[in-house]
Amino acid sequence: MTIRPDIAELGAPTTIENADVTVVGGAGHVGIPLVLALAEAGLRVNVNDLNQTSLNTLESGRLPFIESGAEEVLAKALAGKRLVFTNSSNRISTSGPVIITIGTPIDEFLNPVRRVVQDCIDAMLPRLADGQLLVLRSTVFPGTTDWLASYLKAQGRNLKVAFCPERVVQGFGLKELREMPQIVSGTTPQAERDAAALFERITPEVVLVRPIEAEFAKLFSNAYRYIEFAATNEFYLVAKSAGVDYQRVLKAMKHNYPRLKSMPRPGFAAGPCLVKDTMQLSAFARNQFGLGHAALLINEGLVLHVVEDLKRHYDLATMAVGLLGMAFKAESDDTRASLSYKFKKVLNGQARAIMTTDPFVTTDPDLMPLDAVIAQSDLMILCAPHAVYRNADFKGKPVFDVWGHLEGANVIR
User: Fold this and answer.
1) Which residues lie closer than 8 Å to 315 by C-beta, 6 or more apart?
2) What is the pTM of this model?
């Protein structure tokens, strides 16, 4: 894959016609780090997304969510005229690779919905040119990549289809793209070669596998992490039932003991990928994925356990409860699939009042300043262990902390 030097040297604005690569869903959490990495590598990128608000935010030089180190790269990409922003499927560039960051969601029954990918492809198909490289980037149900290649062939189309799963930690995607290997697969040798050539521009190493292997690699990675969180959460519950401080046990277990170095602390495991990918794997295994179902029961059930435990010690009906941190993880502004909102729902009708706060989230109009929540609460629950809470003055009021994030006489574990 090459950049046309005449255009690059002239510094002409990127257009639909001269873009080197198109990223569909390019203004989302998966798309933005990839767009910026490609632009940083010298490519001209068509940032295609239906969310015009996010496109406008990017075009203004701002980010719609937290992404470490991205603002400077975005500023340079805008100054270098390397980005063009488009908001419909009929504005896909007809030359260069097209990367689709739309994956397979799950429905209310926790089953995968492959139709979302098909609808996206169908909308773009009249615009795509035979011979273009089409890269699936987000999680897909096993077999989707090969299915897509067959589907396009049945439509009389000749596109090169690849699956190159995104595996970065949210909020640090740009950094990890520069540092971590990229799994690459293609349904034909040419698709694999072209996809590898594209990602070699932004990552230090590519790992070549078959499409079905790449699909399982993505699902296994997230399911394994979800199961790890479930294991430590189950240990926490066992220790708590024995009246033992699990944080002390965990600290002793991990101290200078390399085989447990990566063991996570307990907490509310959530977010847009872990549950979804675990359930997709379960659906593929015809609901015979016992570890995945057990992890779901433990991680989702931890919220219910905390509430029931509090009810045994406090009269919640007379108390105002403050929820600290509504993002799904620390130092993030992303509330998607956050268990903090499950707390809010479960406590509704059981507590006298519920108040919420988060220093990063800007999309929830019900959030209050931390000082106000502390002042008005009788009891607080640490839902997301943001660093700001570590040194907060809780005025001697009780704070329930599963994470082991806080210290003090008022902390309940």
Assistant:
1) none
2) 0.92
pLDDT tens per residue, range 15-39: 999 999 999 999 999 999 999 999 9
Separation between Cα atoms, residue 137 and residue 210, nearest integer Å: 15
CA 6 to chain centre: 38
Place of tokens 């990367």: 99
User: What would the two tokens of residue 78 be?
Assistant: 């805008």
Judged against a pLDDT cut of 50, whether residue 337 lies above it is answered with yes
Mean pLDDT of 59-82: 97
Element (H, E) at 170: none
Q: Dmax of the chain from CA atoms?
A: 73
Where do the domains of the chain lie?
A: 5-209, 220-412
H-assigned helices in 46-104: 52-59, 70-79
Domain 5-209 identical in fold to domain 220-412: yes
Torsion sign over Cα 58, 173, 39, 96: negative
**Residues paired with 46 in a beta bridge:** 22, 84
Q: Is the dihedral of CA 109, 110, 114, 120 positive or negative?
A: positive
Please give the pLDDT value at position 8.
45
Structure tokens belonging to residue 379: 């009891």
Better pLDDT: 253 or 170: 253
Distance (Å, rounded) from C-alpha 378 to C-alpha 74? 44
Superfamily of domain 5-209: NAD(P)-binding Rossmann-like Domain (3.40.50.720)
pLDDT (tens digit, 9 = 90+) per residue, 126-154?
A: 999 999 999 999 999 999 999 999 999 99
User: In this structure, are strands 353-357 and 379-382 parallel, antiparallel, or unpaired?
Assistant: unpaired
User: Which tokens sit at 324?
Assistant: 């600290």
Helices (H) and strands (E) in the chain, counts: 14, 13
Task: Answer whether CATH 3.40.50.720 is correct for domain 220-412.
Answer: yes
Instruction: Give CA–CA dist 31/137, Å, rounded.
Output: 9
Q: Which tokens belong to 189?
A: 């040798």
- Name the pairing type of β-strands 182-186 and 160-163: antiparallel
Indicate the length of the chain as a whole number: 413
| Residue with tokens 């989230």, as numbered in its chain | 361
What phi and psi, each to the nearest 5 degrees, are found at residue 85?
A: -110, 120
Q: How high does pLDDT run on average in the chain?
A: 94
